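Protein entry
_____________
===
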Amino acid sequence: MNTLFAETLKTLRTEKGLSQRQLGMKMFVNGSTITRWENGSRLPDAAMITRLARVLETDVGTLLNAAAESSESPRIIIVDDNKAVLSDSLLILEEVVPDATITGFGRPREAIEYAKANRIDLAILDIELGKASGLDLCKKLLEINPCTNVVYLTAYPDYALGAWKTDACGFMVKPLTAEEVRRQLKNLRYPLGGVGE
């Protein structure tokens, strides 16, 4: 079952305000083909994925990566320069999302290098990262992969307004709790195949 591709396609289609039938008409396929792509029972070939990217005005790499990695477990990163917070947060994430690949970073540069080599489904970012900013890191991660879900984690709720000016899809106040992670997982822009539903 091609869950990641199916969810990515559905999200991109709904963001464009298209029904399955309307997308089918633009793609010159019937609506039931779109339904099968979105329920994960079928996967379009590379030529159709390229056409989908044009119709949905998205990067073809986004759809190709989703198709290639549909069966992989979700990949989550957390970036926080406070080692104690990072360590505690990793334990909570492992409890809530046991099937995910979870990696922690103390420096934004390390997270960027990792994101260049790996698809990131969810990035949880501290806003104050020493001299660096989680807001800037968010922009860089989304340049690498526009379908990365970004959720901010900070001790300062006053940052919320600035955080919403980026393309993040969530905001949590420290300390991280399992309950808050579960709540955020239900509100991700690009759902993590079966997680949080």
The chain has a mean pLDDT of 87. The first strand starts at residue 75 and ends at 79.
